[in-house]
């Protein structure tokens, strides 16, 4: 149902959506502060950030519901500044479904096509295909009030896709759904997005949702993109401490950089220097914070003299799929480890443990003032 299902290499490499130094001020409030972004044809990019970081404003500027103070929005290379929302080649889904309550599912989905004055026969055919796509083929005669929240969001998605826009924008489309339905719909949206190869920009504040759905994630903070990359880039190689903290629980151990081949090392204790992952650009001498995800460390009972990092278990928490182990290091710092739950845990509060960091290189971030 979509002209963009061709997967030729040249299409993939061109930016279907390009934002250039986009800014938006509401009076004194700078909602977006110079956002530049290239979204490739067929790509799924998520704007992820805390509430108020400028995600929705960016999306509304792309859709044309907000006029940017400065900067450009280009769709397939064409400047959109003079295009009203309905002339932009965009489909939109919000958190609140905004379906017409008095119209049937079919009529809701047909609405954008009737606005565009398509011939009746074509409308019927396209509506049927769009409803099949979201697996609502049999519910076309129902009213929105006769559907569950997840089904209503599927109707909204069908309505956004039915006129085959080149870009799909999703602003927290699953925000009103409960957890299990949310996860089912994440998978469902991703399936449809890939089947159509439709260029998509989604907004969420949910890290897990962003990681599981996106080709790339742009982390927004204070109206700017602080980092953009694949989910693994963002999770494993955060540029800043803010991003490391935002993307999940993390320990930070402060240390001094010792330059060397590859990534050099970070000395975090008199007898402990941890190899650092190579990174683009030289590391400045001085201090950095080592980023240690709890699932990447092991607590080993009975540390010996010279074992490096060691401490005493301060607490053990059962969290279902894992045990969370809080260790008070001999330096006085606290460190949290997460051991996958394979049955009994042979560790208890008070036990002395060594912290096994393995031999693989670690990631570090600059100190944050
Ligand atoms: P997010 O979607 O990331 O939660 P928004 O883009 O909605 O953030 O908002 C970014 C900033 O702009 C916030 O400080 C918000 O209060 C402000 N803002 C958004 N819309 C308006 C508006 N219409 N008038 C004034 N301030 C606004
Ligand atoms: Mg928002």
What does this structure look like?
The chain folds into two domains: 7-241, 3-Layer(aba) Sandwich (Rossmann fold), CATH 3.40.50.300; 249-366, Nucleic acid-binding proteins (OB fold (Dihydrolipoamide Acetyltransferase, E2P), Beta Barrel). Helix content is 24%, strand content 34%. The chain starts with 8 loop residues before the first helix and ends with a strand. The chain has nine helices and 20 strands. A hairpin with a 3-residue loop joins strand 16 and strand 17 (322-329). It has helices spanning 9-13, 55-63, 105-115, 120-133, 149-161, 179-196, 207-213, 231-236, 241-246, and strands at 15-26, 29-40, 44-49, 70-75, 78-79, 90-94, 167-171, 199-204, 216-221, 224-229, 251-258, 265-269, 272-275, 287-292, 298-301, 310-318, 322-329, 334-340, 352-356, 363-366. The model is unreliable at 1-12 (pLDDT under 50). Helix 3 (105-115) crosses helix 4, helix 3 packs parallel to helix 5 and helix 4 packs across helix 5. By secondary structure, it is α+β, with helices and mostly antiparallel strands. Adenosine-5'-diphosphate is lined by residues 26, 29, 31, 49, 51-57.
